Amino acid sequence: MTNSANQSQKPLTTKINSCGNIEIGGCDLVELVEKYDTPLYVVDEKTLRTICADYKKAFEKYPKTNIMYASKALCTSAISAILNEEGLGFDTVSAGEIYTIYKAGADMSKVLFNGNNKSFDELNLAIDLGVGRISADNFYELALLNTIAQSKNKTVNILLRITPGIECHTHQYIQTGHLDSKFGFDITQIDEAVELILNEYTNLKLHGLHAHIGSQIFETSIYADEIDILCRELARLDEKFGLKLNEINLGGGLGVKYTDGDVPPSTYEIGEIIIDAINKSVKKYNIEPPAIFLEPGRSIISMSGVTLYTIGSSKQVPHGKKYVSVDGGMADNPRPSLYQAKYFAQIANKKEACEYEKVTIGGRFCESGDILIEDISLPKLEEGDILCVYNTGAYNYSMASNYNRVEKPAMVLVNNGESEVIVKRETLEDLIRCDVIPERLKR
Ligand code: LLP
Hints:
The longest helix has 21 residues, at 221-241. The chain has twelve helices and 21 strands. The strands form three sheets. Strands 4, 14, 15, 16, 17, 18, 19, 20 and 21 form a nine-stranded mixed sheet that branches. It has an eight-stranded parallel barrel with strand order 5-6-7-8-9-11-12-13, surrounded by five helices. It has a three-stranded antiparallel sheet with strand order 1-2-3. A hairpin with an 8-residue loop joins strand 17 (356-362) and strand 18. It has two domains: 5-43 and 302-432, Lyase, Ornithine Decarboxylase, Chain A, domain 1 (Beta Barrel); 114-296, TIM Barrel. By secondary structure, the protein is α/β, with parallel strands linked by helices. It is globular. The chain has helices at 29-36, 45-58, 77-85, 95-103, 120-128, 139-151, 190-199, 221-241, 267-285, 298-301, 335-339, 428-432, and strands at 15-16, 22-24, 27-28, 40-44, 65-70, 89-92, 111-113, 133-136, 156-163, 185-186, 204-210, 247-249, 291-294, 305-316, 322-326, 345-347, 356-362, 371-379, 386-390, 410-415, 418-423. The structure holds ligand LLP. Ligand LLP binds next to helix 10 and helix 11.
């Protein structure tokens, strides 16, 4: 079956150029570092647009498919503008994401607002900015949403988020579809929610059901299980309430290749499995083919992104490991310390033929757990070498912090030999921008 870009460990344009340096998007990484400094997030536009094309092609046989990029993976104005241009919708989970996407000029009718504890202000903003669907997560939210909708004399289009009771093999913190989860209505609570919507919450219009099983998933069969459950529920609700729901949202979750051991399925394989499962369930439950919504985040953006660091100090523990430190770490990529995530890296600048050594790449932050990569074999490192860590497009910048009061890195978009800043490097002034010194403490 055809490969898709999510199966690539590196951006598709990665190569060694005539100077012997790594190049991405036609840009020499050493030159990027000279121009923009490190740590630096780099996003390859070609890889990003290729995966969007892969997704669209994989589902073209089922025209009622809507790809909604899960912006929690990486939400910036330029990335939102590119994905809007590609025709994708957006799965959002906060006012911040909604506002960013709105300001980037996206089609708000293709935005879904999701989350287990959306605030009054966030729901208000979502309705005012014309967000297309709100995925109602719990009883409290249904009541709140109806009150807001009533006060604006509007009808709000919703889905019901449910927990389908499917366990997938991924890190416990990024599993979501199992029964003991904080997200969504338990299957046994759906009817009560539907009764409320039909009888009391008359400013809410229910279109369908929404589930999300987990993230960094390699098993393909669980999507078929999820579809079976969602279609079964559509048929059941039709029979019990005469309710014709015509949308199912399958969430995100398709994995990427962080290390050689990771073998994610392609978008084409997932497409076939999902379309096949829908067709089977439609027959099995005798329902109208529903529109499907997918919310991929990681598999859209991860492989387009790399992070560049400069090698600094090192320490050989007597009879132990060799630690080599870089100028970033857990504040720009918290995934290794949070989920024991593994990454692959290479030296971006040309190294004359030299021996390899096994090192552990430490971050610069004040915690022993700030280790970016354990035991990686690299050419003997020297201060000033540039380390390129691959597959950092998803959940790196979006989960970055200012821990240790360190400025967040810049992000550049590369394409056809051109580089453009899409997120400016924070400055020391940015770090104190929201600080206030009470008058009595001023001197
Ligand atoms: N839809 C819903 C409802 C979600 O909760 C998520 C992710 C997605 C879509 C997108 O899933 P993806 O396609 O990216 O797997 N911070 C963690 C990942 C948390 C994912 C949370 N929900 C990490 O760095 O691995």
